[in-house]
Write a structure and sequence with these properties.
The protein is globular and about 60 Å long. The longest helix is centred in the middle third of the chain and has 13 residues. The protein is about 15% helix and about 30% strand. The protein is of the alpha+beta class. The protein folds into two domains: about 160 residues, Gyrase A, domain 2 (2-Layer Sandwich), CATH 3.30.1360; about 80 residues. A hairpin with a 2-residue loop joins strand 4 and strand 5. The chain has a five-stranded antiparallel β-sheet with strand order 3-4-5-2-6, covered by helices on one side. Strands 1-7-9-8 form a four-stranded antiparallel β-sheet, covered by helices on one side.
């Protein structure tokens, strides 16, 4: 690794996350908990009051359908999920009959989440309700007393909901919030083409969003089999590069130390969005790489500063 700079790129502060939606999970508390425990990949029994937890749902093949944050507030549970731009025009839940779904519609992660859970929620008398609450994300020093959903040895990330923005003012930018999430290894799926594409182990969700100690959920058998019996030859990483690394990447092959010709773009598979911190002149993104290639990527890819 060329430089150990990742913590220096993290700024402390708070931000209104306008691209996030709050959905109340309504029903008898015990029924809601039983329902969630059988559907989401995380263990909600570990959630304390006013705390948050990264989670996701999978299909029967173990592919991630939607990711989100679950929070427990006033003894009730809420989903915090990336929202579709046209969310106010669409009812919850979506109609299950294809004849009532407009042609060409592409659901966002929020609609996929509700659509997939609704058939199971009916058995527990659980319902979902979109709220007008706003979402506030905060980055603070590790010693802060707030309940984080993610942390490293330097900082922690927490999230909360509020009904009023009048007294709030952003102290960090959206790129700074996204950069901190990426540096801590947290990928957030935002678009329809990103769902049903990866299993948890491929995108670090096995470490951040999956409990291997709880009971069954959809896809659990495959996820567990890959964790304990599979051979994982790839690694989910965070790349910190010079600002124009992606733009200036040339198509011509490179020659590695063994004399083999390599295509630069096949050395890593980007996942999710790119984040540019203009004041730092860096670009941050997540990617999947072959473990055998990882030790030599810094030398093979000029412009890469650090790989986490």
């Amino acid at each position: 690794m060329k430089k150990d700079i990742h913590n220096k790129l993290i700024e402390f502060g708070s931000i209104y996350l306008e691209d996030m939606l709050v959905i109340d999970i309504e029903g008898d508390k015990s029924k809601v908990e039983e329902f969630l425990q059988g559907q989401v990949t995380s263990d909600i029994s570990l959630l304390s009051e006013n705390s948050a937890q990264l989670s996701c749902i999978c299909d029967h093949k173990g592919l991630v359908l939607a990711d989100f944050i679950i929070i427990k507030k006033n003894e009730k549970y809420k989903f915090i999920v990336s929202k579709t731009e046209s969310v106010d025009e669409i009812r919850y839940p979506e109609p299950t009959d294809a004849a009532f779904i407009p042609e060409g519609r592409k659901w966002g992660v929020d609609h996929t989440l509700i659509y997939e859970l609704t058939p199971f929620a009916k058995f527990s008398n659980v319902k979902f309700k979109k709220t007008d609450e706003v979402v506030i994300g905060s980055i603070s020093p590790k010693s802060n007393s707030e309940e984080p959903f993610l942390s490293n040895d330097y900082c922690q990330l927490s999230i909360n909901t509020n009904t009023d923005l009048n007294a709030f003012e952003d102290s960090i930018s959206a790129p700074q919030w996204e950069a901190a999430n990426k540096i801590l290894g947290n990928l957030m799926l935002r678009f329809p083409h990103e769902t049903e594409k990866f299993r948890p182990l491929e995108i670090n969700y096995d470490k951040l969003r999956v409990s291997f100690d709880k009971g069954c959920y959809r896809g659990q058998e495959i996820v567990a089999r890959m964790k304990y019996l599979g051979v994982d030859r790839r690694k989910f990483c965070t790349f910190i590069t010079e600002e124009h690394f992606i733009r200036d990447m040339r198509p011509e092959p490179i020659i590695d130390k063994d004399g083999k010709s390599r295509n630069k773009k096949k050395l890593f598979k980007p996942v999710g969005s790119y984040v540019w911190l203009d004041d730092m002149n860096v670009c941050i993104f997540n990617a999947i790489v072959k473990k055998d290639d990882l030790p030599k990527l810094i030398d093979l890819l000029p412009g890469v500063i650090q790989i986490l």
